[in-house]
Amino acid sequence: RDIDGKMNIPKNPARGLKLVNSWGKKKIDFVPIDPAGQSVKIYVCGPTVYDSAHLGHARAYLTFDIILRILTDYFGYDIFYVMNITDVDDKIILRARQNYLFDLYQKGAKDLNKVCKDVQDSIKTVKDKHNKKIKTLEEDLKQTTKSKDRDELKEMVENEKVKLGNVEKAEKEATEYIEKQGKSGAKDTDVIVGLLNIVKSEVSYLLDKKEGHTVTDHSIFRDHAARYEQEFLDDLKSLGIRMPSVLTRVSEYIEEIVEFVQTLIKKGMAYESNGSVYFNVAQFSTCHQYCKLRPECAMNTKLGEEGEGALGSSGEKKSQSDFALWKKSKKGEPQWDSPWGYGRPGWHIECSAMSGELLGNNFDIHGGGSDLKFPHHDNEIAQSEAFFDTHQWVNYWMHAGHLHVKGRKMSKSLKNFTTIRAALQSNSPRQLRLMFLLAKWDSEINFDENSLLEILSKEKQIKSFFSDAQATLRNKPLPSKMLQKWNDSDKKLNEAYLTIKADVHKALCDNLNWADAMKRISDLISEGNKYMRKEDFKPLLLKNILSYTTKMLRVFGVIFNDQVGLEGEAGSSSSSEEAVKGILDMFVDFRNAMRTEVKNMKGSNGGSGKNIMDLCDKIRDETLPIMGVRLTDTKDGSKWALEDPKTLMKEVEELKKQKKTPEGEKGS
């Protein structure tokens, strides 16, 4: 009997990396299970594909992409990375049914008076649901004395009030819409479409409550999940996130899940009840520690209920702490045959069965968002320890911090989210990645306008450094014609460079602290900027700094290929600059000569001179950006740099907007 919950660290080769393990909440040496200390097995909980992914999801998956890149490209580990796709879940079932029923309802909706009555009933039903839950939670809060449990309940109450507020907002908007359309004389059919768009979620909820059991076509659920799975994978590609070694889909592992549950029953760790199967927490706790990640939640039945899903299960539990492994399917739910009748997997069992199938009875790292610690990951641990007869299923648990909006976690249910696709309309993949690189991977991030301004400033600093350095190096004489002996300035910069490299390594060894690493890289860029302005700077030293900065930004995924600097999101290689260097140098020299001649023109020729200057500006501001060339005019002449044409054209459009905006409106 071993329930002390202490982790045994392998005695294999290590590389100086320490990680904060959610199990025990301590910073400990990272040592792979592999005797050679080279291979690392990782499982990360993927999405439940019921709707479009938002920036909160991007926070988790970009975070683990950066973690995996550092482990692979910096520390040199060989990674076997598994991510699951949850395509069987209460949320998917509900959303698929609701969308299907809503579409049918909208197609047949012709009577405006009836639709208005249905809308009123829907809003009342949803408001009653939220009010009832708020009342129940507030009653529980009165009976609860533990501070942590009280905090959890308070947050649940506040979140439920936000949801209620969203319904009341939709109700007000619908009322105002009907009043406005009544005065406009619009067609009833057009009014119905506009009204239903405002209250789609409320109407869908009531439709499902009344008619959800009639949706029996299995393809409705599969098609819904497949649509959002593909959208999620496309989002990963857009964000520059590397794909896992293996994607596991729940619907393809039903046989393995059933066998897993059967084994737990045989071991006395689970029991069948009315066609559903539950994990026996009390029995497990006689020889294991339950809730290793959040021990304080072991008796928190409210959070446990949240993990059981909105559709619940049909059987009777022996204890409120027990959780569903297999759910008997009700009418209107997908189903698979099993020894206990037709049903479907519970939420937690999928990850235990699929990771066990591919990674075995003990692997290195399991990751996910911090909200998954309890009940999901703690229940995964219980299932897997019981199945494999072990007390250490996973060695290191890593949980990415949340993305918050105005102090609340970004969430679909709270309607305070921005989809990844919407975010990419106004921000580049690089900018979103930089946002997460400026904070520690396991800390919370508040998403607001100030954070976006910081990202833009950081990106500008990096881009300017590369473009200025490359332009400066292009204009330097051949190495054989330059003095190569180092002076005090060169030695001082090199010392700073070596110190910063050591600091970056120290930061990454310290729980992958890329926020501090990025600060030191920013310091190196500042030093490099000052150095390249010196007349006698040494190109080789500057190139070393450029090369190292490029290497680290590539490790973090800020640079996506073999280029030096930031030439594009998916950009061209550094050889592209060599290919056009002669042409652009010749063009810039010609343009500089033209501008110089115009500036020297006097008297009557001034008018035509201005026209020539305007043409030079037009080439700089309109023609070259299309070709991916940034041209910057300085007092010492013009400098060019290759960049992403989309980024440059976006800047051109912004400048045009600013020129059109009257002076008095700029601050509005």
Global Rg = 30 Å
* Strand percent estimate: 5-15%
> Could you give the order of strands across the largest sheet?
5-4-3-10-11
Number of helices: 21
Explain this structure to me?
This protein is of the alpha/beta class and about 675 residues long. Helices cover about 55% and strands about 10% of the residues. The chain is built from 21 helices and 16 strands. It has a five-stranded parallel sheet with strand order 5-4-3-10-11, with helices on both faces. It has a four-stranded antiparallel sheet with strand order 6-7-8-9, with helices on both faces. Helix 2 packs across helix 6, helix 3 packs across helix 6 and helix 19 (about 575-600) runs antiparallel to helix 20. The chain is globular. It starts with 17 loop residues before the first strand and ends in an 8-residue tail after the last helix.
Summarize the structure.
With 668 residues, the chain is an alpha/beta fold. It has 21 helices and 16 strands.
SSE diagram, text form:
Blueprint lengths: L17 E4 L4 E4 L9 E6 L10 H20 L3 E8 L4 H19 L3 H32 L3 H38 L3 H11 L1 H12 L6 H21 L7 E4 L4 H13 L3 E4 L2 E4 L1 H4 L16 H7 L15 E6 L14 E3 L3 H11 L3 E7 L3 H16 L5 E7 L2 E3 L2 E2 L10 H7 L2 H9 L7 E2 L2 H26 L13 H22 L4 H19 L6 H17 L19 H26 L5 H21 L2 E6 L2 E6 L2 H16 L8
Parallel strand pairs: 3-4, 3-10, 4-5, 10-11, 12-14
Antiparallel strand pairs: 1-2, 6-7, 7-8, 8-9, 12-13, 15-16
Helix pairs in contact: 2-6, 2-7, 3-4, 3-6, 4-5, 8-11, 11-12, 14-15, 15-17, 16-17, 17-18, 19-20, 20-21
